Amino acid sequence: xxxxxxWLKQVGLGVVGLGLGQIETFANPIPxxxxxxxxxxxxLLRSNENPYGPSPLARTAMTExxxxxxxxxWTQTSELITLIAKKNNVAEKNILLGxxxxxxxxxxxxxxxxxxxxxxxxxxxxxxxxxxxxTLGIKxxxxxxxxxxxxxxxxxxxxxxxxxxxxxxxxxxxxxGTICERDELVSFIQEASKKVIVLVDEAYIDFTNQQSLSxxxxxxxxxxxxxxxxxxxxxxxxRIGYAVANESTIYELSQLQSWPNxxxxxxxxxxxxxxxxxxxxxxxxxxxxxxxKKYTIEQLEHLNITCIPSHSNFIxxxxxxxxxxxFEQLEKNNIVGTKIYEEQGKWSRITVGTMxxxxxxxxxxx
Length: 366
Ligand SMILES: Cc1ncc(COP(=O)(O)O)c(C=O)c1O
Hints:
The chain is of the alpha/beta class. The protein folds into 2 domains: 3-53 and 286-365, Aspartate Aminotransferase, domain 1, CATH 3.90.1150; 66-277, Type I PLP-dependent aspartate aminotransferase-like (Major domain) (Aspartate Aminotransferase, domain 2), CATH 3.40.640.10. It is built from 13 helices and 13 strands. The chain has helices spanning 3-11, 20-23, 56-65, 74-87, 101-114, 133-136, 153-158, 182-192, 247-254, 266-277, 279-302, 326-332, 355-365, and strands at residues 43-44, 95-98, 117-123, 138-144, 164-170, 197-201, 223-228, 241-245, 306-308, 314-318, 335-336, 340-342, 347-351. A 7-stranded mixed beta sheet has the order 2-8-7-6-5-3-4, with helices on both faces. A 4-stranded antiparallel beta sheet has the order 9-10-13-12, covered by helices on one side. It has a two-stranded parallel sheet with strand order 1-11. Helix 8 links the parallel strand 5 and strand 6. Helix 4 (74-87) packs parallel to helix 10 (266-277). The longest helix is centred in the last third of the chain and has 24 residues, at 279-302. It is globular. The two termini are 41 Å apart. 42% of the residues are buried. The structure holds pyridoxal-5'-phosphate. Residues 47-48, 100-102, 126, 170, 174, 201, 203, 228, 230, 236, 241 line the site of pyridoxal-5'-phosphate (PLP).
């Protein structure tokens, strides 16, 4: 048995139901096909999850942390906050943890609702988190994308009026995979944040070479950056994310949590801490994603399916010229995709899975 297999046995991964095929992904540059849940054999290309993770270091740390789950995780929480702060070039007081970045988006929405008014976001962007807006009494204003499916920052800026309290920027944008030029985004934030809160969602920033905006919060009390361990770090089911913001803004957001930083388990905290230390995993996932994404886009274009260049781990494409029933083809092949986001042009999205998964996806469409 290889050292790696011995190591896996030692860390007891059998307990959490991970197969060896899955683990050996990290021994080989090209992963073997695997599904993370032995009871669910569907190919899940719907939620932009990481098909390779959690990282080996995170798996070990999480397994070990089960034994200390009888205790509250104050020590681990502060250790994690210190490491997150360091990675983001800010101080501990600029960080607030949540159960996924969804909790952070929620808090930002509640915070905005206290001030009454409206918030601006793109049409089409990630907007599941906005469903409480109506109940909270704040109105959503949507601004169309540009023709090439990018956020229209100029139009978003122009749309600010005396009722506007917040602007949401998803960068890279979900579902389109487009990215804002950093300089343009920084100027936009400088202008917009004079009047309103700018909430920047960097869920997919690790799949790009663009530098995070997180350290701008030191000088800007109206900027909130939301980050997650769900995507690059493969901890979607672990539910852990965080806000980076100015000290005073973090304080305001934390007042909306009954236990500030308290919604994250010891197990997820251990996973997040270990993930941040596993640079190899991050590099490997980055390059696998680039390679598989390139293959998928090329194959989709051969099938006459137009794709938007993607800066993320998913691809946005038009089914206008595709003659078969796309969703039926997926269903017949046990593949789960998402939906049509824009009726005009029949735009849909697919997550970049493993190479084997994407070969199956392409074969299903042929
Ligand atoms: C842009 C964006 N933000 C936030 C989230 C929420 O992620 P989580 O709550 O798992 O951190 C997602 C999930 O798909 C997303 O696509």
